[in-house]
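Let us work through a complete example step by step.
Step 1: write down the sequence.
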Amino acid sequence: MVAAVDSLTQATLGAAVGEMMLGKRLGNRALAWGALFGTLPDLDILVAPFLDNAGNLWWHRGPSHSLLVMVLASWGLSAWLAKLWKRYKISRARAGWFVFAVWSTHVLIDCFTVYGTSVLWPFSEYRVGFNHLFIIDFFFTMPMLVALVWLAFLRTKKQLPKRRRLNAWGLGIASAYAMLSVGMKFVASAGFEADLARRGVEFERRMEAPTPFNIILWRSVVDRGDELWVGYRTVFERRDTPVRWTVYPRGAEALTGMEDLREVKRIQWFSDGWWIARRHAKGAWIGDMRFGESREWGAKKGMVDSRPSFAWNVLPEQDGERLRAFRPVRTDPSETLRRLGLRMLGKRDEWEAIPRLAGVTGSLPEFLSVQE
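Step 2: predict the structure and record it as C-alpha cells.
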C-alpha cells in the first residue's frame, strides 16, 4: 500500500508539472503524459525480479534517479516526443525540458524523504535524503490532486486561464507545505539538541525525520557508537520539555565473522550506518533505525513493543539468497493512528510505555532502558 500511495504522489506531481508546461497546447493530454513520466523513474521495480535482495537495495532509487540518467533520458526522448506532438507545435527543446522538469521534480521530492536517492550516480553512491517529509503525506498530495481533478473538466480555450490558476494553487500549496516542513524540522531539531545539551550527552551524529503522515511529531535518532537513542517531540513543545529517550544497544558483536559478507556491507551502506543487530542460530537479524518502528501496546500491560519497519535476516550458510527481508507483524493501524494523533496533541502517556525491542528472529522481546 505504501508503494501504491507513493506512486500516486509522484503521478500527481508529474501531472501538475505537465499541466504547467504543456497544458495550454495538449490540454488533458498534458496531465496524462506528466503522470506517466512522473512515475517513470520508479519503474526500476521492473528489474527487481532479476536481482537478489542485496542488489535491489542498491538498484531501487538508484541509477534511474540520477542526474546523469535524467539528462540522457530528456535528450533521448525529446526527438520522439517532438515528432509525436508535431501537430501541437511543440519543439524538441520544449519536449526535452518537459521530460527533465517532470523527472527532476520526482527525484527532488524523493530527496525530501528518509529513503534518499542516488542523485550523483555513477560518480558517487551517496544517497541524498533531507528527511523533511514522510514517504506518504496526504497534506502534500491532496492540494494538487483536488486541483487536477477540478481543472480536468475545464476543456475550452475560454477556461484555460482558470486551469492555470487552479494548477498554480495546487502546486503552490504543496510547495509551501514542503517548505514548511523544512521550518518544522528546524524547530524540532533545536528542541532535541537543547535536550541533549542539558544532559551533557556526547554523540557522534543525530538525525530527525517526521512520523507518518504529518510534520508535527518528529522522531530523533542519536548515534552514540555502541547504542542508538530514539526520542519523540512535537514542534509545539517548549524547548525545555524533556525528551524521553529509548536506548537501543547496537549489538555490533552480532555480526562477528560476517563483516565481509556482501549482504552485510550492503545493509550497512543502505542504512547509512543507522543499524542495530542481534545474533540468532542461523545468522543475524539487522534493523534499520531510520524508518521508525511498528509499535504495539498491550502485549504486556504497561509495555510497548517496537519493531523496526525495515529489517532483514542475514543467513551466511544459506544456499542462494542470503538476505531476506523481515517484515514486522502488522499492528492495529487505527490504534496506532489514534495514539499518534494524541501524541501530536501533547499526550505523551498515550505513546510512551515500558519499551521492548520485539520481532527479532529467535529472540523473546528485549527490555530497553530509558533516559527520562
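Step 3: interpret the result. The first helix runs from residue 2 to 26.
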